[in-house]
Amino acid sequence: MAPIVSVSHLVKTYGSGFQALKGVSLDIEEGEILALLGPNGAGKTTLISIICGIVNPSSGTVLVNGHDVVKDFRATRAIIGLVPQELTTDQFETVWNTVSFSRGLHGKKANPAHIEKVLRDLSLWDKKDNMLRELSGGMKRRVLIAKALSHEPRILFLDEPTAGVDVNLRKDMWKVVQTLREGGVTIILTTHYIEEAEEIADRVGVINGGEILLIEEKSALMKTLGRKQLRIELAEPVTVLPQGLEPYHLKLEDDGGRLIYDYDASGGRTGITTLLAAIAEAGLRIKDISTRQSTLEDIFVELVEKRA
């Protein structure tokens, strides 16, 4: 099956000469949740804006459901919903009217039942008659999502959707995201909350400096790049590692009270058995031992730092 979004050799250079995207290529499969991670200025918003038809590329192509986003703008925009990073709302309009109007802008016939469902799913039903200027920042963020869902899109882009949203609202939003995915909607999100990407995404992409550093299934990414850490608490702290422990590249933490050993959990031999024997031979007494699996955030930071 062809990908629902296909990006090929995408370049965007602004009038100032700044190159926001440098030959980006990626395919997005229908029905998946793709989390796009990257620091500020990495090119995430530019990439989304081009796919959504808001910004024109300098070169390269983007196909959405087989249609070119430049040549067939109407066909592609009709199946895309976008939740922008900025809180752009009509301050003197009611929640119901602005969401209903957004549906009409996409050429869809009025469907009060659908609008009601969207508002209820986003816990906005009791605010339907409120003007937007009366809402909190978190509620306005929900209205943006409601507007993006008003025309029943097949693809939903969420650009930092939970920025400035409290924990409870954030959890509600992710429940909606999961429900949408179960209904076949393809979801692409950018987020600074890496733990969210780790929890809900099927695949993770890392972008930095206008280039895709990596796109991989989350489980494969964690298995390939995720490392484990053995944390050894010593009964008495040391200031210098004994000479016999040098081959293990240990790190000292907690003022010499803890040894840190990084190892590949997927490898056939971890070296832990020989390390513990070497520690005993060096005369160090162990108080406690624990392990820690590297997180998606650890992997993200390592990838970005390598290409910085």
Automatic annotation (TrEMBL):
Signal peptide residue numbers: none
Keywords on record = ATP-binding, Nucleotide-binding, Transport
Under the heading InterPro entries, the entry gives: AAA+_ATPase, ABC_transporter-like_ATP-bd, ABC_transporter-like_CS, ABC_transporter_ATP-binding, P-loop_NTPase
Location of the ABC transporter domain: 5-234
Presence of keyword Transport: yes
Gene3D superfamilies noted in UniProt: P-loop containing nucleotide triphosphate hydrolases (3.40.50.300)
Which molecular-function annotations from GO does this UniProt entry contain? ATP binding; ATP hydrolysis activity
* Protein family (similarity comment): Belongs to the ABC transporter superfamily.
The name this protein goes by in its record: ABC transporter ATP-binding protein
Q: Which organism is it from?
A: Ferranicluibacter rubi
Q: What is the lineage of its organism?
A: Bacteria, Pseudomonadati, Pseudomonadota, Alphaproteobacteria, Hyphomicrobiales
